[in-house]
Amino acid sequence: MDYQTIKKPTVADMKVRPNLVDFQGKPHGSVWDDIQKELGWLPGGFLNMAYECIDRHAEGAGKDRPALLWEGKEGEKETYTFGNLKEESNKFANVLKGLGIKKGDRVFMFMERVPELYIAIFGTLKVGAVCGPLFSAFGPDPVKDRLFDSGARVLVTQPALRRRIADILPDLPALEHIIVVNKNQRDAQPFVKGDLNYADLMAQAAPELEITPTSMYDYSVMHYTSGTTGKPKGAAHCHQAVVQQYATGKWVLDFHQEDIYWCTADPGWVTGTSYGMFAPWSNGVTQLIYEGGFKAAAWYELIQRYGVTVWYTAPTAIRMLMKAGEEVPGRYDLSSLRHINSVGEPLNPEAIVWGLKVFHQAIHDNWWQTETGAMLIANLPAMDVRPGSMGRPIPGIEAAILDDGYERAPAGVEGNLAIRPGWPSMFRTYWNNTDLYNSRFRKGWYITGDRARMDQDGYVWFVGRSDDVINSAGHLVGPFEVESVLIEHPAVVEAGVIGKPDPIAMEVVKAFVALRDGYEPTEELRRDIMAFARKKLAAAVAPREIDFLPSLPKTRSGKIMRRLLKARELGLPEGDTSTLEED
């Protein structure tokens, strides 16, 4: 399919911030200097993420503005204003101070998406401690790895999750306190001896607090990211990250204070903190938090009921919505939606075309990583969208495509995607692994591990991870390109592509596909899909083999785990699978 450029909407349509054009042509550093002037600094010139996101609004006109609209998995509903969140996070900070927690200590959260999770995170930041949200679907071993490596002194969790990890707790010598949140008394079982009751602690805590002075460069948040081999590594960020999270909330997500925003990502992943907490609340935006899981009808109903205006989700979720069909969204009033963004893996062009049909607007893709802390490349609402492209570097970011000698490659040539270090939200270390951290930088560039190309107009086109690229008879094949073609087939909803060793061609392309409802995995359909792909791609690029799977292995953030597909195909060790999404 020949995907045409989607022209940018008018200012009236999208309420694009006209001051964005003021940044064009400015030196990269001055962009961040200008943004920092918009923040509220603590006395003495200190910077604290909790103050920027909560107290700054609570101490001004935003005190009574709703910050958090929560809907629980059992249908409960709660609303917290910025004033409420200030008081509750102050109380949790005082709880931590009473336990002897000080600046630099690590406090981890292993919880569902309940308001107490957000309160605990901001309370932790207020005492200058480092917070580490963990995904609630983790099993015991992933939790153990992260708590042990970080040396966490406090764990905040819930009764059922605490029982899940009970056996690993004695193996954590640094862990001193376990605080248990029994949300709405859902769990009737008694507390374990020695655990602390969140409700009792908060009832005794004072609501007044002087925030611990933190500098821009003090650690704030730690997220663990997995590789093909070895244990997960903790990417630690600093309070300065809020500068870029605030800015990209304005520029990319186009936040206005009257917006109702919904980020579907879990706070156990970086999207769920950077854009499920820091970006929206630093901009004073009201945010919907939904504890429940995915169901197409339920999601559409939430958008209708809460009047969601800005929506940030993942390509996997979009493909699942596509699988549910176009009739389902037609039953709901989705007219409140004015801006939709996607992240987690590249957004297939077909999904953008589907979004135009269903939502009457383009879905805007963007690119960033756990290590980058915030968006670096994006389809801004003030830009034309080129389906299949991640967009262009945002103001203040210098991106380049480098060859294998780390020199700039010409426009249109595939190479290593690299970023000039110094952006505000850049990770500052891999916890306890300085050598690995240093290995990510070459010749003055941060090497992302992604391969891409950049066109003459500065749009960046994702090719694949460096270790995903397939070399077939000298042809470098990007899995994403093949996957995008495969999901254009009417029977295919998801596709993952790997390189399979071949004695002649070095590697041949093998595809794994999941089918839409109503299609059966037959040999005839296999041949039809292969013929379809060959019509779209050169012979060396089209899949030589196709296997059908009920669903593809994905991380919780929505990335298809190609390395896991390859390991299973070749009978190799699967490596760290703690981030694997479960069926």
What does this 3D model show about the protein?
The protein is of the alpha/beta class and 583 residues long. It has a domain at 472-570: 2-Layer Sandwich (GMP Synthetase, Chain A, domain 3), CATH 3.30.300. The strands form 6 sheets. A 9-stranded mixed beta sheet has the order 2-1-11-10-12-13-14-15-16. α10 (270-282) links the parallel β10 and β11 (286-290). α3 (49-58) packs parallel to α10 (270-282) and α9 packs across α10. It is globular. The chain starts with 10 loop residues before the first helix and ends in a 13-residue tail after the last helix.
Topology:
Elements: H1 11-14, H2 28-36, H3 49-58, E1 66-71, E2 77-81, H4 82-98, E3 106-110, H5 115-126, E4 130-134, H6 140-150, E5 154-157, H7 159-164, E6 177-180, E7 196-197, H8 198-204, E8 219-225, E9 233-238, H9 241-251, E10 260-263, H10 270-282, E11 286-290, H11 296-306, E12 310-313, H12 315-324, E13 339-342, H13 349-359, E14 363-367, E15 377-378, E16 392-393, E17 399-402, E18 415-419, E19 429-430, H14 434-438, E20 441-442, E21 445-454, E22 460-465, E23 470-472, E24 475-477, H15 479-486, E25 492-502, E26 506-515, H16 523-536, E27 545-548, H17 562-570
Helix pairs in contact: 3-4, 3-5, 3-10, 4-5, 9-10
